Amino acid sequence: MAKKPAANPRPTEAKRAPRTEASATDQITESITGAIVERRLMPGTRLVEQQIADVFSVSRTIVRQALNQLSRDRLVTLEPARGAFVAMPSIDEARQVFQVRRLVEGGMVRQLAAQVSDAQIAELRMHLKEERQAVVRSDVPGRTRLLADFHVVLARLLGNEVLAEMIADLLSRSQLIALMYQSGHSAEHSQAEHVDIVEALARRDGRAASRLMEQHITSVERNLQLDPRTPDLAAVLRRRA
């Protein structure tokens, strides 16, 4: 009697396969990046290698690889003899990040308007609905992630993963900047601006979509405290009567 062919491994068995070193590194990188985007990790926070290794049940070597990757992405600063810290972007870096975003994302939506499909507009409107629900229920981590993801979704609709990765990196850095310089740009305002951008795309109006995107990014930047006033030293130090 002929032998039956071996059955395919069950899904549960596949899940038990050991993680590769690369996948473990990616998991740590994505977790820290996600915590930054959702504003759960503040600028200047020390990232202790052993604590991270314990959380993910990996060696400190793998943690170090992840921190090196985050350092190359400018999300983490590595200091000799002190360790790793969540980056603290300078004012000049903040301005440069927003300048690049205006240039890249303005062109991105102009191109998207020329080729976007009705199905893609429906996908964007579903994303806007999720944003709105998160804003209404005051889900801070959820709305922060969704508002950031909106920009990455636009890039992916163009079918350009390189662009999507670039936008994701810029957005992670933007979130650090917003934490550093106390953004006054409300989630409600951002969500309303996203709605306007999608409506311009639905009309296939590339010029309007580009203008609205640039205005949106400029509005976010203007609500940052990038020009702190120099305090009056005498007034600060003078004893109160």
TrEMBL record:
<protein>
    <submittedName>
        <fullName>GntR family transcriptional regulator</fullName>
    </submittedName>
</protein>
<dbReference type="InterPro" id="IPR036390">
    <property type="entry name" value="WH_DNA-bd_sf"/>
</dbReference>
<keyword id="KW-0238">DNA-binding</keyword>
<keyword id="KW-0805">Transcription regulation</keyword>
<dbReference type="GO" id="GO:0003700">
    <property type="term" value="F:DNA-binding transcription factor activity"/>
</dbReference>
<dbReference type="Pfam" id="PF07729">
    <property type="entry name" value="FCD"/>
</dbReference>
<dbReference type="Pfam" id="PF00392">
    <property type="entry name" value="GntR"/>
</dbReference>
<dbReference type="InterPro" id="IPR011711">
    <property type="entry name" value="GntR_C"/>
</dbReference>
<dbReference type="InterPro" id="IPR008920">
    <property type="entry name" value="TF_FadR/GntR_C"/>
</dbReference>
<dbReference type="GO" id="GO:0003677">
    <property type="term" value="F:DNA binding"/>
</dbReference>
<feature type="domain" description="HTH gntR-type">
    <location>
        <begin position="22"/>
        <end position="89"/>
    </location>
</feature>
<dbReference type="InterPro" id="IPR036388">
    <property type="entry name" value="WH-like_DNA-bd_sf"/>
</dbReference>
<feature type="region of interest" description="Disordered">
    <location>
        <begin position="1"/>
        <end position="26"/>
    </location>
</feature>
<keyword id="KW-0804">Transcription</keyword>
<dbReference type="InterPro" id="IPR000524">
    <property type="entry name" value="Tscrpt_reg_HTH_GntR"/>
</dbReference>
